[in-house]
Amino acid sequence: KNMAPVTKELPVHGSSVTSFDRYGDSRGYFNELYNADKYDESLNQEWKQVSFSSSQKHALRGLHCSPHGKFITCVRGAFYDVIADFREDSPTFGRWCGVLLTEHNKKQVYVPAKCGHGFFTIEDDTCALYLQEGTFVPANEADTHPFDSLFNVAWPVPEGVTPVMSPKDIAAPHLCVRRPHLTNLEPRGRILIIGGSGQVGGALMNAFGARNCVGTYTEHKAEGMIHFDMAQASMNPQLADDLMKTVYPTLVLICAGFTWVDGCEAQQAKANQMNSKGPAIVAAAARAHGARTVWYSTDYVFDGGVQSDEGPYLEADKPNPLNVYGSSKLQGEREVLLADPSALVIRTNVVYGPEAVGKNFAYQLVRKLRAGELMNCPADQVNTPTYNRDLAEATKLLTAQSASGIFNIGGDELLGRYDFGLELIKAFNELTPDAPKLDANLLTSITTSNSGQAALRPLASGLKLDKLRDTLPGWKPRTVREALADWVKNPTGKALAD
């Protein structure tokens, strides 16, 4: 059965890539290049002109800026199609993205009006078909040099090859010549955060600067981010390769994963897809495109003293996971470092802090206690709780030093979950004097054996930070009270008191 065309957003605001199906038999094939009844409504334009170009191998066209949108299809050969956001009123101004279009991969690209557009051909006799929202008027076009320093497009030009360009494109000015006020504007960074819509991803976006990042989401659409499904990529590596070609990142931070510990017990295949195979495939794709990888693991790779020594643990201590979640993460560590030996693997634990959704332990605690509900907390599950902004800051510092291998990032305080809850209550009540007080009597201390949790948990766990301190002299994590003070002073995401 042939599928309807599927349109997905690209990192440049308003741009998109559409995948279509093709009808084939012994004679050949037939496919529609546009159908107003089937294509996404965002593409339901009154097309005013149809254009066609033919190019030799290694031809570079662009960057051409038109007052009209374009819908591009490769009908023969292959080319790397680029969209550059020239619109100063756009949230993605200064960003570019790319899509490989071939006669076989059944993809089309929509270029919004007033964006720069260009492509580099991979094969001889490459032909492109354009649907245009308006007619071509030379006086209304504004060309920009394809190697404009504000965008630094990573054209996939093979080493030793000089692109074939027209005299007009060679002579095209840089954007700052047309707009002198942009002369000192720094180019955007190209950091890809897989799982940018989550807690750790949001903290990383803030630490590295949202302007420098492209984030992804999986299930719940997040403004300004693009879709990527790690589980699907684990079964289809081409999806990871396509993502790298779209963003061409210099750094890939993978914080998406299947972190529901009890859920991993029932869904082992998903745990392995999200926590080991998928991240390894992404790391391999990143390495192939010249990017470095950072991936997040957990202290659940240890057993917390059940069968070996108690924590807190050093990076070199022998892992011994007790549950599927920990096992999948340990396998992920090995597979990511095998895919890219220069990757940075970060172990962390009990992450809390501001986030868009409001799911972490601190939010749950405040929400339940403000509603007057009892909350059971295991006193014997001991960790070193990690403030997400500390995790993001330390990650940024480690990447600046090109650190690789396994590093622990956590807090300094060794706390059972019940004691962690008490610390949060005390700090919240002190730091938010105008908010209703949280009643510590609603927090109940229990043991893990009485918690009803499906998966075994490491008890005496946590992470030692000796290696991190040696690498980042002077850096130290905030205490729970210091973290909450920072959170209250600099609120982002969902309000803690909601």
Automatic annotation (TrEMBL):
<dbReference type="InterPro" id="IPR029903">
    <property type="entry name" value="RmlD-like-bd"/>
</dbReference>
<dbReference type="GO" id="GO:0008830">
    <property type="term" value="F:dTDP-4-dehydrorhamnose 3,5-epimerase activity"/>
</dbReference>
<dbReference type="Pfam" id="PF04321">
    <property type="entry name" value="RmlD_sub_bind"/>
</dbReference>
<dbReference type="InterPro" id="IPR036291">
    <property type="entry name" value="NAD(P)-bd_dom_sf"/>
</dbReference>
<protein>
    <recommendedName>
        <fullName>RmlD-like substrate binding domain-containing protein</fullName>
    </recommendedName>
</protein>
<dbReference type="Pfam" id="PF00908">
    <property type="entry name" value="dTDP_sugar_isom"/>
</dbReference>
<dbReference type="GO" id="GO:0006556">
    <property type="term" value="P:S-adenosylmethionine biosynthetic process"/>
</dbReference>
<feature type="domain" description="RmlD-like substrate binding">
    <location>
        <begin position="190"/>
        <end position="490"/>
    </location>
</feature>
<dbReference type="InterPro" id="IPR000888">
    <property type="entry name" value="RmlC-like"/>
</dbReference>
<dbReference type="InterPro" id="IPR005913">
    <property type="entry name" value="dTDP_dehydrorham_reduct"/>
</dbReference>
<dbReference type="InterPro" id="IPR014710">
    <property type="entry name" value="RmlC-like_jellyroll"/>
</dbReference>
<dbReference type="InterPro" id="IPR011051">
    <property type="entry name" value="RmlC_Cupin_sf"/>
</dbReference>
